[in-house]
Amino acid sequence: MSPTMRDDLLAAGLAIFDRVGFEGATVAAIRERARASNGSFFHVFASKQELAGALFIEVLRHYHAAILAALDPAPGATEGIDRLIRAHLGWVVTSRREARYLFEISRNEWGDDIRDVQRAHNARLAEGIERWRAPLIACGDLLPMVPVMFISQLIGPAQVFCRAYLSGRDRTDPRNEADTLIACAVRALVPPDRITASNNKKGAAP
Would you say residue 201 has pLDDT above 70? Predict the structure, then answer.
């Protein structure tokens, strides 16, 4: 079976899941959208759940790539926080269907078969962030804290707006809140004296 058929089925699955949810989706509807025969579907995926798990990994990979791209080339502390938050908000808006699948539709029970792959992708993301973060902690430009706390302070508040946007509870573009979210994250993650120094540099006459 060609990679194209697999990609077509994943794209069809994403569209159907986005429209009717996982429970409402059927293999027949996915096959029809992908223009695939019954035999073609089951040659690639054993079940709707297997397709959903594979799609989760594919979307997770796209999201992680967008986040890590924000750190290339490696920025300073405040700029890095700015880039990471804007990358998260930007991906959610420009890849709304994928983001909705990743953050709103996916289910924990799909994870049994893909847990190791998911863990490996998460580890690569964590390593990429730590390569940027560790030197900044060492020189005092970022506050020392465990990685999970750093991520929760960095992305957690933005996710509140993103989930409301993805669920349809609030149609306001979450990127509108970027400046405030970045300012709050900087206060939570950067030592106060470094924030003052950075602000003084920005306000200095050329």
Answer: no
Q: How far apart are CA 72 and CA 67, in angstroms?
A: 10
Q: Which of 204, 194, 163, 200 is nearest to 80 (CA)?
A: 194
| Sign of the Cα pseudo-torsion (27, 30, 33, 38, in order) | negative
pLDDT digits (tens, 9 = 90+) for 163-183: 999 999 999 999 999 999 999
- Taking 50 as the threshold, does the pLDDT of residue 205 lie above it? no
CA torsion through residues 104, 110, 115, 121, sign:
negative
User: 58 near 104, Cβ under 8 Å?
Assistant: no
Q: pTM here?
A: 0.90
DSSP letter assigned to residue 90: H
User: In Å, what is the CA distance from 148 to each residue of 40, 66, 126, 160, 192?
Assistant: 42, 19, 9, 17, 21
Per the CB < 8 A criterion, the answer to whether 22 and 100 are in contact is: no
DSSP secondary structure code for residue 108 in this structure: G
Are 62 and 32 in contact by the 8 Å Cβ rule? The answer is: no
